[in-house]
Amino acid sequence: MSTAEETPETSETRESRVPQETDPELRALYRDIEAAELRPLWTITEQLLTPTPRPRAVPWLWRSSDLRPLAERAIRLVPVERGGERRVLSLTNPGLGGRPYAAGTLWGALQCLGPRETAPAHRHTPGAIRFVVEGEGVWTTVDGDACDMRPGDLVLTPGGAWHDHANGGDGHMYWFDGLDLPMIEALDAIFFEPHPELRQPVVGEHNRSEREFGEAGGALADTMVAGAVRGPLDAEPSALLVYRWAETDRRLTELAAGSDAPLVGVEFTNPRSGASVLPTLSCGMHRVRPGGGSTPVRRTGNRIYVVFRGAGHSVLDGRRFDWTAGDMFVVPSWVAEEHHSVEGADLFSLGDDPVLRALGVYREERLPAAQEITDVFG
Ligand code: GTQ
Ligand code: FE2
After folding, report:
1. Would you give the DSSP letter of residue 188?
2. Ligand nearest to the CA of 180
3. Structural domain includes residue 173
4. How many structural domains comprise the chain?
5. Which domain range does residue 171 map to?
6. To test the ligand 1 pocket, which listed residue (80, 173, 177) has its Cβ within 8 A of the most ligand atoms?
7. Which residues lie within the region annotated Disordered (predicted)?
8. I need a surface site. Which of 86, 105, 209, 212 has the fewest CB within 10 A?
9. Could you list the mean pLDDT of each consecutive 10-residue stretch along the chain, which spans 378 residues?
């Protein structure tokens, strides 16, 4: 069965779409409407116009203890080649009927490279971000600019930019990929093109964008300041392609020292405009103080979290998700979320909220009290 043509009634057969009517004339009307490739809205209104968002994706968590060994086996058994392009394990949300997406609008994945391997150069309309989980020695070249990658770094590969990943070292490397792929697919705007070379030429010294645009230090917005994340829409992606962990860590440490909030956070911004890093995607880093817990909130838009350091748990619509470093989890639109840690933790986040804000459909709601835990994941 095609999953691309899902309707609000996936579980029903085509026949059962016709309402069971006793009046033969009415029955005939429904039959003829259907035969003419039409649908009567009054029979499906409640599925379409829901009081609040009803994402098909469900809150879910992928453990590093599952992801990591599988990626390691893939490094041993599967070469990275032209055609397949990438050695990537996509987070596949069980609510999406087999589509390889973490949420309706977001692709999330673990990518890995073995010693001296290169993931071939290509470009595509979907934009991507990389958040490094583990390892060293890899650089991602973006339109000629080789960006070195180390744990905790964020690297951007905007839509339309040539990119390849090269491991110049002898170790394994693992990073999180986030893309707006499902969103661009929904807009029927996917274009893909392989580069004629396996590796595109590197122009000049590594990390050019960092030298040119990374100095100002204005690339992080404090999300604790009300309004800071509501940057203007910028249709241009950030010209700064690398956000270093050292700077993120420094800013979070500063924020934590300056307040007693249980959670502090920064949003990575386009240094030119203060907008999100890509037109479609926002990235943030959140530090849960030891013993801290965030206030419960729900937002429109989907989010993926990557646990960078520490351990703790999140409560998502009343279900408890325990996590530790390297785990990844998804919070679909309008799911109530809160994050807790006894030892302290750093969480990276990827969201589609720039699109919701640009279209005027972004909403968030603080919940009056911590959620009651009714269930534990896994
Ligand atoms: O590294 O270029 O996870 O093109 C999915 C598609 C990574 C990449 C993904 C991609 C890439
Ligand atoms: Fe790509």
Report:
1. T
2. 1
3. yes
4. 2
5. 60-376
6. 177
7. 1-25
8. 212
9. 45 60 93 97 96 98 98 98 97 98 98 98 98 98 98 98 98 98 98 97 96 73 52 84 95 94 93 91 96 94 98 98 98 98 98 95 95 97
